Write a sequence for this structure.
């Protein structure tokens, strides 16, 4: 319904407010669940999708009630992508970009893109391709990777770079965060896009949207973006990203961009 654009981009294009299109984000299930009597509903708190380190970052959206039901998650959710960038113990990392001209956002019509982040994502996928080539040669399946972002312009430019013929050992799926709800992949790369001196994070303010973006990964979640911009936001938005950052920092997953594009 939304093609490659986010809800905000569609609203701007057709000349209405985002609030007028909010009904597109409300599922029938959610509406019925919220209106149902407490005696016939219950929140499911055991998840079987993601490694517990990834779960730790999104548990704040579930009142910290989530538990991991996967037995031996370090084995069953091993990404097998250990390299000079990603360590075996890493299941959630944040590739930190600085606030400078090399990584600043650019505007295209009503949307935004970030060429610096696209370069990082290409380098990551190249690293993964080099690792997985031998595995495919030995009969393993292609490694499934999702690259998702909050902006249609970014998605279209990433699509131009991640051509399937350049990554024959990977199965790469692209999508906006809005379109990727309900899907999952072993590895997910999230491009945050916004990087500016006016401290505007754009669409990435809503907890429900961040929850969708950061909970798609099963084995490895890679956030690419300006760590300082998002974690130093005021109020609830800054608190939300700071909690994510604290989980990543505790696991040793804060990675400076120089390790990838140095």
């Amino acid at each position: 319904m939304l093609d490659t654009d986010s809800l905000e981009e569609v609203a701007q294009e057709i000349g209405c407010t985002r609030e007028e299109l909010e009904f597109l984000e409300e599922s029938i299930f959610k509406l019925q669940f919220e209106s149902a009597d407490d005696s016939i509903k219950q929140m499911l708190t055991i998840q079987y999708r993601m490694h517990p380190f990834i779960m730790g970052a999104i548990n704040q959206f579930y009142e910290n009630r989530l538990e991991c039901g996967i037995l031996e998650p370090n084995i069953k959710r091993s990404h097998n992508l250990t390299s000079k960038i990603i360590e075996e113990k890493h299941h959630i990392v944040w590739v930190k970009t600085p606030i400078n001209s090399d990584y600043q956002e650019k505007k295209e019509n009503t949307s935004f893109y970030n060429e610096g982040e696209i370069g990082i994502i290409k380098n990551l996928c190249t690293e993964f391709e080099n690792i997985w080539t031998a595995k495919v040669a030995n009969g393993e399946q292609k490694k499934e990777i999702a690259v998702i972002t909050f902006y249609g312009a970014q998605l279209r430019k990433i699509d131009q770079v991640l051509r399937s013929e350049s990554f024959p050992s990977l199965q790469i799926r692209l999508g906006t965060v809005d379109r990727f709800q309900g899907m999952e992949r072993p590895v997910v790369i999230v491009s945050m896009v916004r990087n500016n001196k006016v401290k505007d994070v754009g669409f990435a303010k809503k907890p429900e949207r961040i929850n969708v973006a950061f909970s798609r990964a099963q084995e490895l979640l890679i956030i690419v973006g300006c760590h300082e911009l998002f974690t130093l936001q005021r109020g609830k938005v800054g608190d939300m990203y700071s909690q994510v950052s604290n989980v990543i920092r505790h696991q040793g997953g804060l990675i400076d961009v120089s390790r990838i594009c140095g």
In short: The two ends are 40 Å apart (CA to CA).
